[in-house]
């Protein structure tokens, strides 16, 4: 069992497969000429599996694969297949571009839920946000997943003045589709130009939805990061991830392993533990894991302690989102 000093048991591991991505979303990877981590410094396939097995031996029940874009990694299929043999719930977050070609591998590995990052339902705005002209490809792949009866969750980062006007459009999408829209408060990371006036809060999102729909709260599962809601008559549902205004730290059970093998005990932690170097030196990584999680702060990495409107994003000591792995 992996626990911190506040009694929180950690049984959910997020593994970033790469910091590479075929999108250039400004809130995640702001620079076009991004300096990707050399392949030799990334965890190799066998190293990912070895580390995953250590975590599973200590009670991890769920593994999520992230990136960057995890499916652009050349050996992604081999990694997914190997992890699919472990006694865990395996899920993935992707931008959706490579879903069609990877679908047989995903299904064989037992992946039943896929999160798709999609911040707009407008093709032109999609191009503006991602700097890539593949909107229709992503939408087609989402329809493919629905046809295959795979649970689809749409991650939509809400940014004031950019896509907050599309909240109703995303809710309309759930009318006849069994999808869950996950509205996410815009969070500060290195280089993503976060400012409080771009942040669209939990209450603002709810107010926007309630203008046009009857909203009913839904009880969530233990350790949920999202607050869940339903609309009568809709096949799908929606949720809000309110990290900035109503965080869920008290029940957090998550650990993050970056693509270069560093363990982060919180998305906003200012420190990390190098598991990959220890593994390559044939050292026992378990004591490092236990010590890292034990030192976890009570909330938000101990850094986001002020109200978001007075938060100085430049003072936060962290990686960019793409190098953390979401």
From TrEMBL:
The GO biological-process annotations, alphabetized, read as: Mo-molybdopterin cofactor biosynthetic process
One of its Pfam families is Radical_SAM
Q: Which superkingdom, per the lineage? A: Bacteria
Could you say which EC number(s) this protein's record lists?
A: 4.1.99.22
Q: Does the keyword Transmembrane apply?
A: no
Q: Which UniProt keywords apply?
A: 4Fe-4S, GTP-binding, Iron, Iron-sulfur, Lyase, Metal-binding, Molybdenum cofactor biosynthesis, Nucleotide-binding, S-adenosyl-L-methionine
> What does it catalyze?
GTP + AH2 + S-adenosyl-L-methionine = (8S)-3',8-cyclo-7,8-dihydroguanosine 5'-triphosphate + 5'-deoxyadenosine + L-methionine + A + H(+)
User: SUPFAM superfamilies from the entry?
Assistant: Radical SAM enzymes
Q: What is this protein called?
A: GTP 3',8-cyclase
Q: Which organism is it from?
A: Pedobacter psychrotolerans
């Amino acid at each position: 069992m992996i626990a911190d000093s506040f009694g929180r048991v950690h049984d959910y591991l997020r593994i970033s497969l790469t910091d590479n991505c075929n999108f250039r979303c400004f809130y995640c990877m702001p620079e076009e000429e991004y300096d990707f981590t050399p392949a030799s410094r990334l965890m190799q396939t066998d190293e990912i599996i070895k580390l995953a097995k250590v975590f599973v031996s200590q009670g991890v029940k769920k593994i999520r694969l992230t990136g960057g874009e995890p499916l652009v990694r050349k050996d992604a299929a081999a990694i997914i297949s190997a992890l699919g043999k472990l006694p865990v719930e395996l899920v993935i977050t992707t931008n959706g571009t490579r879903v069609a070609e990877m679908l047989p591998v995903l299904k064989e590995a037992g992946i039943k839920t896929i999160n798709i990052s999609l911040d707009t339902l407008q093709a032109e705005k999609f191009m503006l946000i991602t700097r890539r002209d593949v909107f229709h490809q992503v939408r087609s792949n989402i329809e493919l997943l629905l046809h295959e009866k795979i649970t689809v969750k749409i991650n939509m980062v809400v940014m004031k003045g950019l896509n907050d006007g599309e909240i109703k459009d995303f809710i309309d999408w759930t009318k006849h589709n069994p999808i869950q829209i996950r509205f996410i408060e815009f969070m500060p990371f290195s280089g993503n130009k976060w400012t409080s006036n771009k942040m669209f809060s939990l209450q603002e999102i709810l107010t926007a939805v309630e203008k046009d729909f009857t909203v009913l709260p839904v009880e969530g599962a233990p350790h949920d990061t999202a607050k869940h809601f339903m609309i009568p008559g809709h096949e799908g549902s929606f949720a809000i991830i309110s990290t900035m205004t109503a965080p869920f730290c008290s029940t957090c059970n998550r650990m993050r392993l970056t693509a270069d093998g560093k363990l982060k005990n919180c998305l906003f932690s200012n420190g990390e533990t190098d598991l990959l170097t220890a593994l390559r030196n044939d050292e026992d990584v378990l004591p490092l894991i236990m010590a890292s999680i034990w030192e976890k702060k009570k909330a938000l990495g101990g850094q986001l302690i002020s109200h978001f409107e007075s938060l100085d994003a430049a003072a936060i000591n962290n990686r960019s989102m793409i190098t953390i792995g979401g």
